[in-house]
Write a structure and sequence with these properties.
alpha+beta, 13 helices, 10 strands, signal
């Protein structure tokens, strides 16, 4: 028997846009159904279901974000991807995409087309095999990215831009060695806003992040990204059938709004009471300088353990590919709430899952985090274990 949200979703997908649904319980129920929906290539029996590809990494949001948390990436006996929890990003040193393969390697394709590449993993290093359109540019760098946890995104939206900017110190005027900066982004109306979503803080709002995922991961067009062939510029891709109506995006605005509404409604991981000694050590080592325990909002404190700023973390955390105006070694401070769930699921930590433990992650921190790492390294063993237990429990 079809569940009520799925029935509602089917009705809305088949109907004209229903803007009045946005913001309510029905909107969020339909948003959940859209999150779980497996899309299909065009043409299909109903245009409401089609538009996938022509190149893509997954057929559904839930394929990479099952349970809304980080998912462990798995490979076959040869080391090739068999789980969709990771993607490979492409760019040159300035953040410009590869001229042929664009911003992300697409490992699946609609019938009649070849995937862009087969990705073979060795540890956290990716090898690109069977490239369908010749070699990547000599200037292009690549880097693995693990699908992030999606809990608490609505609370990150609550933090005012002013609160993030107040923490920025791009010139390190206080001399503490930390020069976090906001990623300032011009939106569609030309208004400068503070980026806060994504590993490089490249989206200022959750809706933009959702539309970017439709573009890069599913190859589906939206109002913000209207190109129906997604991340592929080759003539073969452009000739593939598109979904939606003539001149319309494959994913309508009301559907984007309902999916965004659902994700914004997902609460953060439940807070755990922390011990005062662990909390004091977290501050004393300097971890709290970037992993700020709480940020203000109109709905109360957001205890995400992040400042939402970009920090240069040194060569050991060079991510290969990057984005315009952001160095390959710069990352938005990762929220630590829910880190205990990532550890229990065995997903690894950092942008590519390379760190098996909190201690491993700390010791890969360089650049602006060098002083904090050094203070961690010289802690007495009991204090270091106490600090680790504190972070592992967040």
């Amino acid at each position: 028997m079809m569940r009520a949200p799925a029935i509602a979703a089917a009705l809305v997908l088949a109907a004209a846009p229903v803007a009045a649904l946005a913001g309510g319980d029905l909107s969020r129920s339909i948003g959940r159904a859209l999150f779980e929906r497996a899309w299909v290539p065009a043409p299909s029996s109903t245009k409401a279901n089609d538009g996938l590809g022509p190149l893509f990494n997954a057929r559904a949001c839930v394929a990479c974000h099952n349970g809304l948390g980080r998912a462990p990436a798995t490979t076959d006996a040869d080391g090739a991807f068999i789980h969709q929890g990771m993607v490979v990003k492409l760019s040159n040193a300035a953040g410009r995409p590869d001229p042929v393969y664009r911003a992300q390697v697409q490992t699946s394709a609609v019938p009649g087309l070849l995937p862009e590449a087969r990705v073979l993993m060795s540890g956290t290093e990716a090898r690109l095999l069977e490239l369908s359109s010749g070699p990547i540019s000599a200037e292009t760098r690549h880097g693995v990215r693990q699908a992030p946890a999606l809990r608490g995104l609505g609370r990150l939206s609550d933090v005012p831009d002013e609160a993030i900017l107040a923490l920025a110190d791009p010139d390190d005027r206080d001399g503490d060695g930390i020069s976090g900066r906001a990623n300032l982004i011009a939106d569609a109306a030309g208004v400068t806003r503070v980026g806060r979503f994504g590993l490089k803080a490249s989206s200022a709002d959750l809706r933009h992040q959702v539309e970017l995922a439709f573009l890069l991961d599913l190859g589906m067009s939206t109002t913000a990204f209207p190109v129906e062939w997604g991340d592929c510029p080759t003539p073969t891709c452009r000739a593939a059938p598109a979904g939606g109506g003539v001149g319309d995006p494959e994913i309508r605005d009301d559907l984007v709004a309902m999916l965004t509404d659902f994700l914004a409604s997902v609460p953060p991981p439940a807070a755990q009471e922390d011990d005062s000694s662990g909390r004091a050590l977290f501050a004393a080592t300097g971890c709290a300088s970037c992993h700020v325990p709480a940020l203000p909002s109109a709905r109360g404190e957001v205890r995400a353990f992040t400042d939402l700023l970009l920090h240069d973390l040194g060569d050991a955390l060079d991510g290969g590919a990057t984005e315009p105006d952001v160095a390959a070694t710069e990352w938005r401070t990762a929220p630590l709430w829910g880190i205990r769930h990532a550890l229990s699921a065995g997903t690894g930590l950092l942008h590519d899952g390379r760190a098996a433990s909190v201690a491993d992650a700390v010791r890969l921190h360089g650049g602006e985090a060098s002083n904090a790492r050094q203070r961690f390294d010289v802690l007495p063993e009991d204090d270091r274990l106490n600090l680790l237990r504190y972070v592992e429990g967040l």
